[in-house]
Write a structure and sequence with these properties.
This protein has helices spanning 2-17, 47-51, 157-160, 163-173, and strands at residues 31-44, 60-79, 85-104, 109-130, 133-144, 150-154, 174-176, 179-189, 194-203, 208-210, 224-236. The chain is mainly beta and 244 residues long. It has a single domain (28-236), classed as Beta Barrel (Porin). Residues 15-28 have low confidence and may be disordered.
């Protein structure tokens, strides 16, 4: 992970350091710095298979509900001169969450919410296909700030004990991990610096670790999925204009 971060930072520095004045004189579309905010809809796959093995018992159902959240970040957009290509680097905050609802034939129900907060770094390739309209893709590495982000509520406290105790025991067993994903997206950069975009991130790495436990929870592969819409604003960096 340290190597990936180092390479991304070095590449961003090389972009800025190696930049040359735009031969078309259009500095505003050359190198831009900006802020972005937006909303995300997130989910985590296969959590039900962690909680109950298919061969363990029957007479139950699981429902997996995606969750909405807020995202925000800072970015650099470098558009090559006389080219449709651009490189885009972003440092951002974003959640990854889901709610698992369990019910069985004995009328026992519980909700298990996994809610993780991430600081992510990503590097995209963008192609401007028409004016400010672009398509893009690239990897994203997210660092989990809240590996114990698990919340449990049920209607079975009289039978199984306080929810808060079970919640703590589950937090000791199910731990969030860092997240590596790959994104695709599209958007539009307006001439006044405003931009809009939509992205989809598909998880590559397992975001949940299952420790040895007495719950009969099993280790499984759990990946994150994120749909994101965002609004941004950027300003140009003008080369060689100081003192004019």
């Amino acid at each position: 992970m340290k190597r990936i971060i180092t390479h991304l930072i070095l590449l961003s520095v090389m972009i800025v350091a190696g930049a040359q004045p735009n031969r078309n004189g259009d500095d505003d579309n050359y190198l831009r710095f900006g802020l972005t905010v937006g909303g995300v809809n997130t989910s985590i796959s296969n959590v039900a298979n962690v909680l109950v093995s298919e061969s363990y018992y029957t007479g139950y159902t699981f429902e997996n509900y995606p969750q909405w959240g807020f995202t925000g970040g800072v970015f650099i957009n470098y558009r090559f001169t006389e080219s449709v290509s651009a490189l885009y680097a972003e440092l951002s905050y974003s959640p990854l969450a889901c709610v698992i609802h369990y019910s069985d034939i004995n009328d026992f129900e519980y909700d298990l919410k996994l809610q993780y907060q991430y600081i992510s770094i990503e590097l995209w390739y963008k192609a401007y296909v028409f004016r400010g309209l672009y398509l893009g893709t690239g990897p994203r590495l997210g660092f989990n700030l809240t590996p114990g982000g698990l919340y449990y509520t049920s209607n079975g406290e009289e039978l199984y004990g306080p929810d808060i105790r079970i919640q703590q025991q589950m937090r000791d067993v199910l731990k969030g991990r860092d997240n590596f994903s790959f994104g695709v997206g599209m958007g539009y950069d307006f001439a006044n610096g405003v931009s809009v975009g939509a992205r989809y991130y598909h998880g590559i790495s397992d975001v949940l670790t299952t420790e040895v436990n007495n719950f009969n929870f099993i280790e499984n592969r759990n990946t994150g999925r994120i749909f994101q819409v965002s609004l941004g604003y950027s300003f140009p960096y003008h080369f060689g204009r100081s003192g004019r």
